[in-house]
Amino acid sequence: MNIKIILFFLLASITPLTLILSYILYFKHKPYVCFGQRKKKILEENQDSVPYISDTIEYLPMATFGLAISSILSIGLYIIKFQYNRLQIKRCNPHSLVSTFTVVSFLIALIQSIGLLGVVSFPQHYIRNVHLVFSAIYFIFGLFYIIISTTLDYNLHLNVLAPKLFIFRIILSVLYTVAILIFQSTNYKEYNNLCALSEITCVTLYYLFFISFFHEYKTIVVGEDLGYSSF
């Protein structure tokens, strides 16, 4: 099997399995997941609250490891997507602005992946400010990437994308924008559950957007003139 397909399915399976397992274990073992009296008090105060993703993964080393692997794998897939965009630019000779935004979108994707690595590397209950900075990087740059990537799809790949798939990505872009606005603007102290649910929604929508790239990975023939091979 082609290495690109293997990378894709690894990422497509690791991310949801990691998050699902982390939530299951969090709710199952929440009573004993505490480090000192401060953490115990926090858990007691939020006993009936919807946990944030960070609340579930920072006490489960394997979950943290799984998301770190997902972040690293996503960089490889972003590189593949960037290669496809370059190929379409060479074929279509679009405006130079399209070429510029192709590079910008790739850089944004790299920064977004680094944001995820920072989120899992710096637990919020121990290095909160650093954690929040990386969290903002992950979600905000994810929004930038979704918007720019969808725009590039319209300019470069519309002739090879199924219309329903393109519409699906537009819908995901709109929903992600709404979810991230709720997440970033909601006072977590007063609306904890809404804020946590909007975070989960953002991650889910971005995941769906990302795996929709499988259509390009599977169907676009990469030209030999660029040193790539088709699959």
How would you describe what is shown here?
- This protein has about 230 residues and is mostly helical.
- The chain is built from 9 helices and no strands.
- It has helices spanning about 5-30, 35-45, 55, 60-90, 95-120, 130-155, 165-185, 190-210, 215-220.
Task: Compile the SSE list and pairings.
Blueprint: H1 3-29, H2 36-45, H3 53-57, H4 61-92, H5 96-121, H6 128-157, H7 163-185, H8 192-211, H9 214-219
Helix pairs in contact: 1-4, 4-5, 5-6, 6-7, 7-8
Indicate the proportion of strand residues.
under 5%
Distance between the termini: 9 Å
- Which structural class should the secondary elements be placed in? mainly alpha
Largest sheet: none
| Strand and helix order | HHHHHHHHH
Query: Over the alpha carbons, how many angstroms does the gyration radius reach?
Result: 19 Å
- Write down the overall geometry: globular
State the share of residues found in helices, binned by percent: over 70%
* Counted beta strands: 0
Average of the residue pLDDT scores: 77
Separate helix tally: 9
Note poorly predicted spans.
31-45, 222-231
Short description:
With 231 residues, this protein is mainly α.
What features would you highlight for this structure?
single chain; 231 residues; mainly alpha; 9 helices; 77% helix; disordered C terminus
